[in-house]
Amino acid sequence: MAEKTYVEEISRSLYDFRDAVNADFQTDAGLTKEIVAHISEEKHDPDWMAEFRQKSLAIYNQLEIPHWGPSIDGLNMDNIVTYVRPKTDMKGTWEEVPEDIKNTFERLGIPQAERASLAGVGAQYDSEVVYHNLQSEVAAQGVVYTDLESALTGPYAEMVREHFMHLVPPTDHKFAALHGAVWSGGSFVYVPPGVHVEIPLQSYFRLNAPGAGQFEHTLIIVDENAYLHFIEGCSAPKYNVANLHAGCVEIYVGKNSRVRYSTIENWSKNMYNLNTKRAVVEENGIIEWVSGSFGSHTSYLYPMSILRGDHARMEFTGITFAGNGQELDTGAQVIHLGKDTSSHIVTKSIARDGGVSNFRSGVTVTKHAENSRSSVSCESLMLDDRSRSDTIPVMDIQTDRVDVGHEARIGRISEESIFYLMSRGLSEEDAKALIVGGFAEPIAKELPLEYAVEMNNLIHLEMQGTVG
Amino acid sequence: MTKTILNPLPAPTWNRLGVNQANISLPEIPAKGWGESSTRVDAPIDSIQLECPGFSALESGGGADLDRFLRENANFHLHLAVKEGTEGMILIQHTLEEDHPHAIAHLSLRARPHSKITVIEVIRGGVSGSIHGSLAEIQAGEKAEVTLIQLQMLSAASVLSGGKCLLPGTGSAFEARTIYYGDGDTVLDFSDTAVHTGRKTRSEIHAAGVLDGNCQKTLRGTIDFRRGAVQGVGHESEDVLLLSPDVRNRTAPLILCGEEQVEGQHAASIGRLDEAMLYYMASRGIGEGEARRLLALAKFAPVLDALPPDLRCEAESYLERRLPS
């Protein structure tokens, strides 16, 4: 009897180790004015920020939970600890980081990556950044890469205040409001005009405490004629209580500048990942998103690009792999405001072993965005009949001088392709491995090399038997 | 006027995009009655039987609110069960006029096993503020084939259309083809859904249209592969030609998939005529006006080709008359 094609679950052994929780301070579970005030006090917020947090909390209490996405019934905010401070200040050299935290990041390969291929690294452990470093040559070019708390009171304080949560206001949705109230950690990046940061910067977020939330804020401002590649990685050990990640990324892409933002999201399967990412792009600017979603119990993740300047461009390349117990709702959004703007969205998704992988997109071309072009392409692969994959794209076109295209495909591994490859001498197992690998390859090649290797490790495919 | 929510998106998305549902005012019975409606059955009459009981179990793509409204208020009800192994065509025509500006139609159809039925709905006329509502509930048995063609040959009229076809029968097929031309301040709101539950079922949902003036159009096309719909195949597409900077086009082509062994595809193309193609045609000696006319008509070819000759001529001349010279 023919056996079903079997694709192995993503191996999480690399990420599933836990440290004993050794917090210096943590708030009570739940969300109240007092808890938010306590966070402000602990973090020595400037007055405007303390006020901003309280306003955000009020908005949070008014807004409803989104009714259109995957269920988040398993998330009870009364049980979430919103702030956990590890027992260390931020360090500028790796040797100073406490041993247990250092071991965690060593196992995740962060310092090795820093030595080999990064211009700067930030490492966040629970609610606080524990390590931040930037190569001196890059710093000499005027590039700023620091934790957001330092930036709030440093020489760039005014710039932070002008940009913080302006792209993603707390009124955007309930979890943006939550983020505004309890955000902690994250990075601030400023690239001055004309500076090309040739080697990527990377932030890595690790959530160790069970039942906690992580709410880091990444604010990136790239001035005119500049270039930056920023890499974000995240992981957590698995617990049997819900954890929450409601981070926020805001990117300002200046005139004639280009920003590439790469993410490998590998949270554990008890994580509710309700993250918001948004970029605004000025004239002739380019934003490139590269996104791999593998972890989490439930994800809502749809980076939005606002093409404000004429000739601005966005490219989104994403892959989502949903396995048992996961419901990953991912995609992209773009709003064309400027003339002659263009957007290109390419995604692949794989659902296996009862996992749910949904693609969701929104392309809006406003009335003044004449001569804009947009193309969306999504492909989904179902590997068994217990899984699910929905494709929910929407195009909202408000002028006539546009060219908008959309295509989507869903299906399984083609028997004809297997037959063809076998006729060329490949074994059936190799043929299937090649096809699934080929399906993900266009995305993998867009990832930074070390992440492409990691993705190949994550999607470790083991084929046996014949077509089921 | 009665405020009613209709055509809910089967899987909702961001509210800001405005496609989760249509908020629209449905008409009350006009003082001088509904628009004129008629039916022509081009098939042996005994192959089609009127049957009302049991149809209430079916549901349209318009949503529960609209189903209820139309059951109570439609001026035109047609409940059909196509006999096993027969073929036929049904022509439903509505005309909207000054004294009778609105028409609301309600079609429910069961295609018995091995039957083949084509339903053509033609809507003509229209005055400022006219509304045409259409609700279709379809169920196809084993190897039954149902084709639903809608020709919106209206002017100045808004359209609400919600069709849903259930495909429980092995080898059953559903095809929906729609032509529309929206202009002025009209609102066009379409929703077509094919629900695949049987094995080897097929669906084809295709629409082509032109938007001019301040027209606002929303089209939701959904292919829903339920678990067990092994070897199901579904395709959907839309081709929209935009002629005015003041139009608003919303397209939401969904594929919902709970079965592994299926093939689903959708495609959409929205915008102007292809300038490169116009240039090529000009280089072959075809004047710009003629080239534009030919390219615009070509968008409708997949629907026009499926029509009987008399309706095809009428639809072509309607489109030629409406398209800018």
H-E string of chain B? EEEEHEEEEEEEEEEEEEEHHH
Report the sheet-strand fraction of chain B: over 45%
Mean pLDDT of chain B: 86
Coarse structural class of chain B? alpha/beta
Strand elements of chain B, count:
18
What is the 3D form of chain A?
A: globular
User: What share of the residues of chain B lie within helices?
Assistant: 10-25%
pLDDT averaged over residues of chain A? 85
**pLDDT below 50 for ≥5 consecutive residues: which ranges of chain B?**
49-54
| Main sheet record of chain A | 13 strands, mixed
Description:
- The complex is a heterodimer of chains A (468) and B (325).
- By secondary structure, chain A is of the alpha/beta class.
- Chain A is 23% helix and 35% strand.
- In chain A, strands 5, 6, 8, 9, 11, 12, 14, 15, 17, 18, 20, 22 and 24 form a 13-stranded mixed sheet that branches.
- In chain A, a hairpin with a 2-residue loop joins strand 3 and strand 4.
- The longest helix of chain A has 17 residues, at 428-444.
- Chain A is globular, with a radius of gyration of 22 Å.
- The N and C termini of chain A lie close together (9 Å).
- The model of chain B is unreliable at 49-54 (pLDDT under 50).
- Chain B is of the alpha/beta class and 325 residues long.
- In chain B, 50% of the residues are buried.
- Strand 25 (402-411) of chain A pairs antiparallel with strand 18 of chain B, so a sheet runs across the interface.
Give the topology:
The complex is a heterodimer of chains A (468) and B (325).
Chain A: E1 23-26, H1 33-42, H2 47-62, E2 84-86, H3 99-108, H4 110-117, E3 120-125, E4 128-134, H5 136-140, E5 144-147, H6 148-153, H7 157-163, H8 174-182, E6 187-191, E7 201-206, E8 213-214, E9 217-222, E10 227-235, E11 243-245, E12 248-253, E13 258-266, E14 271-274, E15 276-281, E16 286-293, E17 298-301, E18 304-307, E19 313-322, E20 327-336, E21 342-351, E22 356-365, E23 372-382, E24 389-397, E25 402-411, H9 415-423, H10 428-444, H11 449-458
Parallel strand pairs in A: 3-7, 6-9, 7-10, 8-11, 9-12, 10-13, 11-14, 12-15, 13-16, 14-17, 15-18, 16-19, 17-20, 18-20, 19-21, 20-22, 21-23, 22-24, 23-25
Antiparallel strand pairs in A: 1-2, 3-4, 5-6
Helix pairs in contact in A: 1-2, 2-8, 9-10
Chain B: E1 2-6, E2 22-26, E3 36-41, E4 48-50, H1 64-73, E5 76-82, E6 87-96, E7 102-111, E8 116-125, E9 130-140, E10 145-154, E11 157-167, E12 173-182, E13 187-196, E14 202-211, E15 216-225, E16 232-242, E17 248-257, E18 262-271, H2 275-283, H3 288-304, H4 309-322
Parallel strand pairs in B: 5-7, 6-8, 7-9, 8-10, 9-11, 10-12, 11-13, 12-14, 13-15, 14-16, 15-17, 16-18
Antiparallel strand pairs in B: 1-2, 3-6, 4-5
